[in-house]
Structures are given as structure tokens and as C-alpha cells.
UniProtKB/TrEMBL annotation:
Residues 31-103 form the BTB domain. This is GZF1 protein. Residues 145-205 are annotated as: Disordered. One of its GO terms (molecular function) is DNA-binding transcription factor activity, RNA polymerase II-specific. InterPro entries: BTB/POZ_dom, SKP1/BTB/POZ_sf, ZnFinger_BTB_dom_contain. PROSITE patterns: BTB (PS50097).
Length: 205
């Protein structure tokens, strides 16, 4: 009787494999390629493993598959117009799947990824640049909204003051009319008018 097939899959194996290859590279063990990088007079050499570089970079894959003979125990590859710091970051990324760089170097890392045809690094840089752009746009939007709210808050007090002043003026007019009923002009007078007949001056005889 045949038994059903089961899947044996390790979630940690890819990470462990990368970590082990990274340690081997740092120690210089089993490395079979030396990459010489030079930029504006600054030069450095990096040892690595062909299999790792070929698996992560189509550029190195083409170089290694097309080489006719080995130059001794290690293959030498020369790269011009690539900064030393950028290639060091590139190596760290392909061996660990992560690397920390300054924000202003993201564009340079994208350029080296395209130069070396490293799809994983290219996509990572592209996504990071997209997030950075969205963050900047969000900050600009928040700044614009805060400016608008400040302008509105600065105009609202003057409107309130004007409405309050109008209300006070109306209240004053209601409490103090121009011709109040208790004014002397409206009160009945006890004095005799000078034109009344009793007060007319006597005629001279």
C-alpha cells in the first residue's frame, strides 16, 4: 500500500544558507572570485563566491558562464565607475537580503542594481523610493492643511469681534433710545405757557 506524499519544508533554511555564505565570505573561505572596484582613483578588492553572485546578478552570471579559462585559483573581475561603498553595500545585500544605506544613496544603489542587473535590489530600491516620495507628499499635505487652519483661526477672531461689536451697539441703542420717554420734552409741564390769555400783558390806557 502506497503512502501519501508529504512536504518537508524549512522556513529557516534559506536564511541559514545566506548567513552561512555571508560568514564564509567575511572569513575568505571557499571564495573563488575577486572583484576589483575603482572609482575616481579609489580602488578596493572584494572576494566572493561565483555561485552567489551568479544567482543574484545577471551581469556576473554572464561573465562567469562566458569565461573561457580561469586566471589561477580565483577569477578576477574589474568594475569601473562603481564606488567602493556602493559595491560593499551591494555585496552585503546579495548575501543577507538587506543593507542599511543613507537616504541620498538610494538612487546610487538603484543605479548599481541596474548596472549589475540585480533584480531583487532594483525592486527594493524602487519600492523604498516610492515610500520616500509618498512620505514627502504626505508631509507637504499636512503642512498645507496646517497653514490653512492657521489662516482660518486668524480670521475667525476678527469676525467674532465684529459681530460682538455689532451686538453691543444694538444693545446700547435698545437701552438708550434717542428720545427716551422720561425726557423733559415728553413730561407734562406744570408751568403756564407764556401765550395763555391770563398772562397776556395789559394794554396801555
Amino acid at each position: 500500500m502506497e503512502s501519501n506524499a508529504v512536504l518537508l519544508e524549512s522556513k529557516s533554511s534559506p536564511i541559514n544558507l545566506l548567513n552561512e555564505m555571508h560568514q564564509l565570505r567575511l572569513l575568505g573561505h571557499l571564495c573563488d572570485v575577486t572583484v576589483s572596484v575603482e572609482y575616481q582613483g579609489v580602488r578596493a578588492e572584494f572576494v566572493a563566491h561565483k555561485a552567489v553572485l551568479a544567482a543574484t546578478s545577471k551581469f556576473f552570471k554572464e561573465v562567469f558562464l562566458n569565461e573561457k579559462g580561469m586566471d589561477g585559483p580565483r577569477t578576477n573581475v574589474f568594475l569601473n565607475e562603481v564606488q567602493v561603498a556602493d559595491f560593499a553595500s551591494f555585496l552585503e545585500f546579495v548575501y543577507t537580503a538587506k543593507v542599511e544605506v543613507e537616504e541620498d544613496r538610494v538612487q546610487r544603489m538603484l543605479e548599481i542594481a541596474e548596472k549589475l542587473k540585480c533584480l531583487d535590489l532594483s525592486e527594493t530600491c524602487f519600492q523604498l523610493k516610492k515610500q520616500m516620495l509618498e512620505s514627502v507628499l504626505l508631509e507637504l499635505q499636512n503642512f498645507s492643511e496646517s497653514q490653512n487652519s492657521e489662516e482660518e483661526s486668524s480670521t475667525q477672531p476678527s469676525i467674532l469681534l465684529e459681530s460682538k461689536a455689532a451686538a453691543v451697539a444694538e444693545a446700547d441703542q435698545a437701552d438708550c433710545p434717542l428720545d427716551p420717554p422720561d425726557s423733559p420734552a415728553d413730561r407734562p409741564s406744570n408751568r403756564v405757557s407764556p401765550e395763555m390769555p391770563g398772562t397776556k400783558p395789559k394794554e396801555k390806557t
